[in-house]
Amino acid sequence: MTCRKNRFVVAALLSLSLVPVPAWGQAPGQTRIQGVPLTGGVGGAIGQPSGALLLDLREEMRMFVQRISAYARRNKPNFVVIAKDGLDLLVKRDATDETKTSPARAYMRAIDGIMQEGLFFAEARGDRPFGSPPVADRQTPMLALADYAKNNGLKVLTLDYGKDIKIIDQARKMANERGFLSYVSDVPSQDIYKLPTHPARPPLENSKSILSLDMVQNYATIRNSAPFGQQAQFALQMHETNYDALLVEVFHGRKPLSRQAVETLKYKKVGARRMVFAYMNVGTAASYHYYWKSNWREGSPFWISAPLPNDPDRYNVEFWRPDWQGVMSGNTNSFLYGIIAQGFDGVVIDGLSAFKFFEGDAAGEDVVQ
Prior knowledge:
Helix content: 25-40%
Distance between the termini: 21 Å
Number of domains: 1
Number of strands: 17
CATH class: Alpha Beta
Shape: globular
Order of helices and strands: EEHHEEEHEHEHEEHEEEHEEEEHHEH
Strand content: 15-25%
Strand order of the largest sheet: 8-7-6-3-17-13-10-9
Structural class: alpha/beta
């Protein structure tokens, strides 16, 4: 991408660096993230000597996604990979000139689409109420990167927020004008427990069987299926709709969706096939998920970092560590293998902005404000 195309894309360089003079209480050659020493040294994670490396967290996240994609497609060749948020990962920034970028081609080849929250209307933040547009200096680079994704052949899904019918219609109109696939929720992202009341039917509702992401003309997402009742009730209620794609959590309450429930989700009311994708968060660990061990806590294992301020049961993780990556993907005990075994058509990789926490941005916002 040329400098001209990227003139709106403003981002900070990595804040991690090795300082020749050790900070107070820090041993020589020791690296700190968020003020906490990297236990065992950086070299233990990526095979280079501790104290001699600038850790490129964005590239580490890209490589993590690429490994996830490669593993998934070895097991299921047509498996779809959608990257949620983390727009900054689409381009690589020059280490000496932050205005210069180059395409992250390997990363973009590893994914089929992107999903961005709050592109046109966002959740409540500070003094901005639910359903407000993001501030211009954040929205402008987000839009530039979303356009860039589309121009590079990626499907772009938007997830906006609003209760007012005018806002909902406006969000859809703005997304459609750019060739994006729009969905607007009237409840916050982590509590999407119902389908929207407006519009009452999926936009561009159709009777086609959907066999690839390119064919998807509308979608719906549910992040909390428990209010629907039992698994079978949830699956049957979703079956009574004609959305081309459904994005759901792997777990219904604390139990994973059965393969039978997933199979029911795969069919529209008209009988045609649709695609069903599962969320997988690679940037945080949840103490209520199956992989969590009774002796785990912040700092133990060392790659479990601070809990999220708005969700104390979910912890930031040093996502570049092999132990954590093995929990997520690469073996038959991993989260991703379970998704494939349950029969999902693809995965929505959440938590991609986790690198920003370790760069010093506690909010983890996409694109620097």
